[in-house]
Amino acid sequence: MISLSKLKKMKQQHEKIACLTAYDASQAYWAAEAGVEVILVGDSLGMVVQGHETTLPVTLDDMVYHTRMVQRQNTQAWCIADFPFMADQDMTTTLTSAGRLMKEGLANMVKLEGGQRVLDKVAALSALGIPVCGHLGLLPQSVQKKGYAVVGKDSTSALMLQEEAIALEEAGAEMLVLECVPSELAHRISQSLTIPVIGIGAGSATDGQVLVFHDLVGLTMGRLPSFAKNFLQETDSIQQAISCYVSDVKQGVFPIDQPGVV
């Protein structure tokens, strides 16, 4: 099984980390068999599985259910479970939510969106021995207010993002997801942290990459995000598509750096 110490060692040795979302047992099994080191049970399931327009309707029960399914057939990957919207509204709710994701869902790590707002919660969870992954940049749970846009394009917001990333690590975060930020900024943040930084729409210079399973295999409903790729178009099976994705991440072939447009 992939451990957190293994992932940190991969960063130190400049070995790229391949991460993929999964929402059920079969997706998890084939992701792990293809060499994916990190499986993210994302609240993106609200859009790609449940058919909602945003991630906001996803419940904690949903996340526990899908994480438990993933872990039944996850043969070796480190598994991160998303906190759904409002599951971290206060300290008591945060601790209860994390406890359920770990005890009932059997997650290895939980992920919280935001910077300054969640620092005290990250510290509290870390103190209890619960591994935490941060999430900065485009925050899907805040799209009603901020929309879908690249974050950190000007010097002020870029500096704020970098400071929040450092603060999250200091609070106890063991990993960070950067979504839709300029590649140069993602590179600086990755270099300034000792924890693994996983990018999505953040260029190739992060310590690893994550894609949504449905985007990787051509099941996107609507427009494929500009940073994503349908790997099934170049292969004969879903299993080969996942293996191709892992290989391209490892070799630095994917993603191709380009101006970010969500």
Topology:
Elements: H1 4-12, E1 17-21, H2 25-33, E2 38-41, H3 45-48, H4 60-73, E3 78-82, H5 91-103, E4 109-113, H6 119-127, E5 132-137, H7 143-146, H8 155-171, E6 175-179, H9 183-192, E7 197-200, E8 208-211, H10 213-216, H11 238-251
Parallel strand pairs: 1-2, 1-8, 2-3, 3-4, 4-5, 5-6, 6-7, 7-8
Helix pairs in contact: 2-4, 5-6, 8-9
What key phrases describe this protein's structure?
262 residues; 41% helix; globular; eight-stranded parallel β-barrel
What is the CA-atom radius of gyration, in angstroms? Answer: 17 Å
Order of helices and strands: HEHEHHEHEHEHHEHEEHH
Query: What is the terminal separation in angstroms?
Result: 34 Å
Low-confidence residue ranges: none
What's the average pLDDT? Answer: 95
Helix content: 40-55%
Strand content: 5-15%
Structural account:
- This protein is α/β, with parallel strands linked by helices.
- Helix content is 41%, strand content 15%.
- The longest helix is centred in the middle third of the chain and has 17 residues, at 155-171.
- The model has no long low-confidence stretch (mean pLDDT 95).
Give a nutshell description of this structure.
By secondary structure, the chain is an alpha/beta fold. The protein has helices at 4-12, 25-33, 45-48, 60-73, 91-103, 119-127, 143-146, 155-171, 183-192, 213-216, 238-251, and strands spanning 17-21, 38-41, 78-82, 109-113, 132-137, 175-179, 197-200, 208-211.
